[in-house]
Specification:
Number of strands: 18
Helix content: 25-40%
Strand content: 15-25%
Largest sheet: 6 strands, mixed
Number of helices: 21
Radius of gyration: 30 Å
Distance between the termini: 17 Å
Structural class: alpha+beta
Shape: elongated
Amino acid sequence: MHRRNLIAYHRSVSNNGSGANPPRRDLSSFRNKTIGFLAFTSLYTAFLYRSGGASSFLGQSGVTPDQTIAKAASEGMMTMVQTGRRFTVATWNIAAINNNPFEYWITMKENPAYEQLMVNVEHFLENPQEKDVPVSEVFTEDMFTRLDGQITKVGWTSVRSYWEKDFKDRKIVSQFMKDPLLGSKRLASMPDRITNTINVEGSDEPVCRPTVINMYDGDLSTMQKWWAAWEKFMFVTPLKIKTTTGVEEQVPYAMLQPIKKSKYPDITEQEEKDSLPLQTMCGAIFDAILVHMMNTVEKPDVWQPLKRTMVESLNKMKVPHTLEILENVYIKSDIVTLQEVSSSFIDQARNSVLGEKFHIIAPSNLDAVRDQNSVIFLNKETFPEGSTEEITKLVEDAFPEGEKVPVANGDILAITATSRDGLPLVVASFHGDTNGLATKPIVDATVKAMGSSPTLISHRLIFGMDANTYENATPGKQQDVLDFAKRYVEQGLTSCWGDTPNPKNYTTYNARTYLQPQLNKACKQDEKREKGDVNPKDFILFGQNDFDVVQTWKDNTGKKEYIEDMAFPTLRFPSDHGILATVLKPKNP
């Protein structure tokens, strides 16, 4: 009715708009109609402001909403109210596959041998005493001689001088594993990162370097067996690698990259020149110490089967377990936002029951190399037409000019969609950087993009995210959770946790063990809670005036249950982030 009266008013102005001066009564009538129009506009804007959409953005942007979309939005909200329909929304950072099954403390109550093994490793590295033997007793002179021969054979400089003058006499724990300078030079961690797990063309299974800290399933029960496998892997066996120019055969040593002093200033100029053979030697010593340590603290026929069990559940079965939880527990959700999703997972989800139930939307700038993408599932009954348009670029274009926001391809996905009730929505999924410094800029940019567009300003926003916020953030380096909450409230939004989330309402609980390259980040068994990543990181945001929360829950079991003070992932729950879900009911406009 309002829209028809508005059109009629414009027509009357046009009909009376001749060049002659109108009679006084027409002028009076024109004045009255003008006042009426302004009053209508004020009421209409107030209505939109109260009922959502413009309530968050109009005051900031001054953009006039597209009237057709604004009308559809208000009618869609009213239909939801009248029919009693609600949105069930879930968000989950499913976490990229971790190639090292031992990297994080896990809860494995069904097998006490795990906890004992990790405690034994901790004691070995924290209090080695007589076990802190010289490197040459573990990585022997014969091993080094064969290694140096392979190094010179491929055209690199011999590293015998480094071995003789330095590394052979270092103590394996105090002077090698725990040497901070060796860590800052990346001489052991760099070759591990590059050769730990290698995806090869034509195989579903990656090739793993013979070491403790990946999915390698060969026999490491003796140093001789380890060394024979390691030397063959690094210098003999060619692998088919997909590159930007096609498929090439490469032997792993050729994949190593020089360590630049410009990036790692602690490395000397001579070490920079020799960085390829030097990191190869350090990588070999590092792996040798790990194998020696494991066979010292536990029998091989105990720790190797335990590792295989962990690899099967945490690595190989990670995707099936993730799909199983979504299919069995969250299949009735209207919206699911996922983060750190691989391209392979997207394909498997589309070919599963989930693909029958949901429109599965991936970002147009999907990054298949880094392979950590944000994805949105839309229930096909709730959103029959699926996604209308991807607006990710609009959000990224709304970043502050000249400000570098730490966002990579695939981190943010924003789309529009229309529900079966005719309600236009912007649905977004976002994975924040480790320190959460991109989270506020992303929320600001999303609000700005919507508020700057006549067609988007009336859309309702539902935003699932791994915000990477912290209970006790380091000022200037990490995003504080309460500071983040202030920002989204300033932008006219609220969350499933309300305007002021409880900083102790955690959705992560993970801690690094001593079986990973960065020992400075390792947590003792009794320090997992104190020094681990136990933080309130996950959120579902929406307009303050759009929805009320009926129920919110978090889940670290895959059963809609959350066990506090439990480190995860577990053998059954495959992520280091809990699932967050909420039921939203529309506010009566």
